[in-house]
Amino acid sequence: MTQRRVHRAGAWAAALLLAGVSVVVGCRAADSDGITPVPQLLAFLPWLTVPTAAALLLALLSRWRTGLLWGVVALGALAWYMEPYGKDADARGAPVSGIRVLASNVQFGHGTDALIDAIAEHEPDLVFVEECDYACQDALAADTLKTAYPYRQAVRADGSEGSLILSTFPLKAAPAVPGTMGMPGATANVRGHAVRLQLAHPMPPLPRQTGLWRRELGRLRDFAAADPAAATILAGDFNATQDHAAFRHILDAGRLRDAAALTGHARTPSWPSSAPPPLGTQIDHVLVSAQFSAEKTRFLTLRDTDHRALLVDLTLHQFSPDSSPSGA
After folding, report:
1. What share of residues in the chain are helix, strand, coil (percent, to 5)?
2. Are 179 and 239 spatial neighbours (Cβ–Cβ below 8 Å)?
3. Which of 133, 242, 250, 311 could join 109 via S-S bond, C-beta 3.0 to 4.6 A?
4. What gap in Å lies between CA 45 and CA 78, rounded to an integer?
């Protein structure tokens, strides 16, 4: 094969890589999740730097100037979108109460024992549990936990459809968000202040089911938008990252902020837990309204589940409309 043919083959390979990356980045720029495989690739958007860098190397070796420029632009766009999304201003007003939140997907109940150990060790005030089947919910209703968490709201179901909110604060039942998997809601009384609680667990963006994934994320967006001035905690397995338009629309509609991003962990992966950091992606989130500041976020690796749990230390602040934080 002549050198000219080698250069041509390298240029074609670079073009194919850059075309694929550009489609995904273009959808991100257009605030769209596109069609399969774009939603799946958006979940791993930072890792598109790998094929982009490979394309740049191929373009360099092939002496393809257009490809070099194309690759630099693609890398720049990826770097831009890797920045945390949403508001990052601190909450104002006098502190009312500290609240420790634990959110965990226990994978069909398999990680229940590890979750119970984590609850005993970290003593959260609120626990959001996804994929908590009948056995999981029964275990979390044992005498010791029932005493520590006398208030709870659940969708009792088997397999991935069961879910549960545990609370040390009094709860008032609220309508669940409709979904294939259970998404219970409640209103907590935190030292006389009402806080909306909502567990998130929409379907994942499986091929041929991205429409269902969008609809269920849209219902969470509707919940967030229903009362954006209220103190709100929306937590769980969103099966979406900040690079998905459907997830960003939840943040924007409810004026919510991601606690992990507020504490410098915008890209810390939560799934799959078997992948060593920084591999993986962050699809588990604790979203909070402007009445909250976030002090610390930890990602806990629990045995027998494919998700890392999120442990977030929050502070609820006295809130008035003119103290709403502003940010980019």
Report:
1. 40, 25, 40
2. no
3. 133
4. 8
What angle (nearest 5°) sits at the alpha carbon of residue 104, between those of residues 101 and 108?
Answer: 155
Main-chain dihedrals φ then ψ at residue 176, nearest 5 degrees: -75, 150
Length of the chain: 328
Query: Could you tell me where the beta strands, DSSP code E, fall in 156-302?
Result: 163-167, 171-174, 185-190, 193-200, 232-237, 257-258, 284-288, 292-300
- Please state, in angstroms and rounded to a whole number, the distance separating the CA atoms of residues 170 and 188: 6
Helix (H, G, I), strand (E, B) or coil at 196: strand
For residue 203, what are the contacts with CB-CB under 8 A and spacing of at least 6? 179, 180, 181, 209, 212, 213, 216, 239
Q: How confident is the model at residue 1 (pLDDT cuts 50, 70, 90)?
A: low
CB 103 within 8 A of CB 310: yes
Helix axes 3-29, 65-81, angle to 10 degrees: 30
Look up tokens 């694929």; give the residue: 20
Classify residue 271 by its DSSP letter: B
> pLDDT tens digits, residue range 140-199?
999 889 999 999 999 999 999 999 999 999 999 999 999 999 999 999 999 999 999 999
Alpha-carbon dihedral sign for residues 274, 158, 102, 139: negative
Name every residue whose Cβ is closer than 8 Å to that of residue 5 and which is 6 or more positions away in sequence: none
Judged by DSSP in three states, 181 sits in coil
**How many angstroms separate the CA atoms of 261 and 288, rounded?**
11
What whole-number distance in Å separates Cα of residue 257 and Cα of residue 101?
Answer: 15
Helices (H), 82-140: 112-122, 134-139
For 57, the token pair is 């190397």
